[in-house]
Amino acid sequence: MRLSKYLAHAGVASRRAAEGLIAAGRVSVMGEIVTDPARDVDEETDVAVDGRPLSGPEPRVLYAVHKPVGVLSTARDTHGRRTVLDLVAKRTLRLYPVGRLDADTSGLILLTNDGELANRLTHPSFQVPKTYLATLRGGPVGADALEQLRRGVELEDGRTAPAVVRRLGGNVIELTIHEGRNRQVRRMCAAVDHPVAALQRTAFGPLALDGLEAGAHRRLSAAEIGQLRAL
Fold first, then answer.
1. What are the angstrom distances between the C-alpha of 27 and each of 16, 90, 107?
2. pTM for this one?
């Protein structure tokens, strides 16, 4: 197993972050500093980070969390603000969010210690769909605005991919995208003259909120994790 993958499986960091730790000379193998992330190791190899020995891969876990508005989707905050990790009480494993939701957006976010799976779920090449419920300003949403969203709209960082959109009410739409640009849904809606008043992510791939209360969480089953891996 590659050293970077071993660190990710041990819950140290995502694979990309693990490569940074290795490059910085913070990882040792059998007592010697190693800077090659491709170094081959196994469960019998003595690996340490900053001099702290690792006990081997942690059990892989994945949680679905209903993030309320105002909670940050980061692992930690330097200003002491509440984060999604604070919503999972009595956790014993190092967890980190899969992607992000901005502070003003509520809804489904995943937490895991599986760096490889997190990378697959967020990398653009895998095109994992994410569905949002958006309440918009600017009056009832007309057919022209819906069609623009479906075709893709021009943003400052390039044209968006086509979205799946349906109107649920006068100014409420459901929108599914498979990109992950910063505040993308908000910028898309503003581009068609319907700024977002309220936004909630209701689904991530095959997973849905399904009655999970704001601030609540649940551990995903092996079958659900298998569905995500199949993406």
1. 14, 28, 37
2. 0.78
Q: How far apart are CA 88 and CA 66, in angstroms?
A: 11
Whether residue 112 has pLDDT greater than 80: yes
Per residue in 83-95, pLDDT (tens digit) is 999 998 766 677 8
Q: Which residue in the block uniquely carries the two structure tokens 């309220």?
A: 198
CATH 3.30.70.1560 domain residues, the chain = 129-204
Q: Which fold has domain 3-53?
A: 3.10.290
Domain 129-204 has what CATH class?
alpha beta
Q: In whole angstroms, what is the distance from residue 105 CA to residue 192 CA?
A: 19
Rounded Cα–Cα distance for residues 96 and 55 (Å): 20
Q: Which two tokens stand for residue 125?
A: 């090449």
Among the listed residues 40, 46, 77, 102, the single catalytic one is: 102
**Which two three-digit tokens encode residue 213?**
């209360």
What's the topology of domain 62-124+209-230?
Alpha-Beta Plaits (3.30.70)
Cα-only R_g, the chain: 20
Give ranges for CATH 3.30.70.580 in the chain.
Answer: 62-124+209-230
- Tens of pLDDT along 43-60? 788 999 999 998 766 778
Contacts of 161 (CB under 8 A, 6+ apart): 152, 177, 178, 179
Rounded CA gap, 75 and 148, in Å?
36
36 labelled catalytic: no
pLDDT greater than 80 at residue 159: yes
